[in-house]
Structures are given as structure tokens and as C-alpha cells.
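User: I'll paste a sequence; please echo it back and then give the predicted structure.

Assistant: Echoing your sequence first, then the prediction.
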Amino acid sequence: MNRLVYLALAVLLASLLICNVSLADERDLLNGPDYADVKSVRLRRNEISIIMYGYIPGTSSLSGRLYIDSDSNVSTGCTWPFEKGADYLALFVKGGAKSFRWKGEKFLALANLSTSFSGNVIDIVLPSTLKLIKPRLKLWVTITVSDPFMPVVIGLNSLKTNYVTLLNDGVDQLPGWLDLMRISGKLKGDVLWISLTYRSTPLPKLNGSSFDALAGLTIMIDADDNPKTGFRGAEYALTLKRMYAKRPFLELSINGELDRWNGSNWVFERTIPGSLIGNNLIYEIALRGLNLSKNAKLIIAGGSWAVLRDYFPNNYFLGGWVNFEI
């Protein structure tokens, strides 16, 4: 019996020597989505596994950067302030990855890498020639999510001085702070007010100091009621945004921008101020100076979106790395 116990301990010790698991285990997004939150990182020989808190949806867009300091020596490799010492960089998306080596003053392309996605794990296989002496890692993962809805076209002159519901959207498989329930609008003189109502207060609850979220919605304006002019019929675009970040200090902004189509490109026209009231984001859009006919229309299509980025480890911007013993 004792021989079996010793054998089991030997097997366990051997597996630990092969598989070095970081002890970092940190939840940044207290109100989800879990699949946008990095839980831990594992290094096994030349394979790196990035473990998220939740299963990654097949429809989501994912990308990231993995920095590797192969010798834990800050005097060699990358000279950037937050990634100082990194000798290698891997850029990865769902379709694959590419590695780069720091040489001189920049990262130079090295080789394509094999990647795989299974459940809540992203696996990246590093080149077998890459020598890891006493490595340390840091990374960030970006997930783009969307809240689709049926498109709506409504005449601008049909809006009243009190809010009119422009669009109702049901409950989606999203956290409440990302789940858009209703879009409302009112018109007072030459000022258009747009209200976006969410299932809960439209801000993430962040536990760490290395996460940012940029979310928004675009509403197009067909100024002349002519589908053959402008960009797909639209002469103006209203991009209503909110940004919440801790990198490492808290930053919050609620605003947007009004752009004008000049025949070939979108040109910035003016900033749109916004505010937060309960579960509502309110944006004030000045229409003065715009060339709008009496039949101008609002086009609401495509859904709302959010770009969520988790930097790992939690003290990414304070000199933090994940250390491994080989």
C-alpha cells in the first residue's frame, strides 16, 4: 500500500514539474460577462493556456496579445514601459496566432503559431526553439460582444417634446449593464435627445485595476429621404458611447460624436455630451447647422456593441507579471 502511495506522489510531482500553473486567480468583472474575464494562465512545456472564467461564445470576436520575458531580465528585450523586458510577443485571434521577437527597437515577425479554443480555454503552442529559462508572462484579451435588434426607421419630425419610444428590445443573453432594452427620443427645437435604457445600471462593476470597457450604438440620419445619396442613404452618423476603465485609475466618460459624410469619408462634426440617470444613458445632440429636410429620418440598425479588454495580471500597469519556474 505504501508503495502505491509513493508511486502516486511521484506521478504528481512529475506532473507539477511539467505543468507550471500560475497562482494568479482574479475576477475583474463582478457583473460579467465571465467569458471576457481572464482567470489564470498555465504554462506546460511550450504550450500556454489562457483560462477565462466562462465559456467563450462561438459568435464572439476575440483577439489578444501575450508578452513573454523568457529570462526575467528587464535589461534585455522590449523597452516599452508596461512590457519592459519582453523578448517575445504573440498576437492571437480565433483563427490563429503569430509570434514576434524583439530585435533592436521593435518586434519582428518570427513564425505562425498553432492555437485552439475549447470551452473557456485558449491554447497557444510556442515554437519548440523558444528557450524559456525563468519566464514571466503578461497579456491582454479583447472580446467584442453585440446586442442585436430589428432595424427601425422613423421620421425625425414624428418626435415630440416628450420622449417617444423608437425601439423595444427583449432580454438577451447578456449581463444587465450590456443589455439594451429600449431606445427613446424627443425633439425640442433644434436639439435631439436620445435615451438608451438598459436592464440594469449600464456600468460594469470592476474589482481590479486592469480592465476597460467601451460600449456604444450608432444611429444614422438620412437627411434628405433619398436612399441613393450619402453613405447607404445616410448623411450623418450619431455614435453614442460610454467608456469605463481602470488602468490603473478609474476613468468614466459618457459622450459621443456626430459625423458627416463628405462623399467618400466620415468627417467629425461635433461632440455629443451624455449623462447617466439610473438605468438610462441620455445624449443631447445639437442639430443646428445640419442640412436636414422636413422628411429626414433616423435609421437604427445593427445593434449595440461593446469592446471588453482584460489586462492580466491585475497589476499589469504597476509592473506586474506572472512568474513561472521551469
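The domain at 20-144+312-323 is CATH 2.60.40.1190 (Immunoglobulin-like). Helices lie at 2-18.
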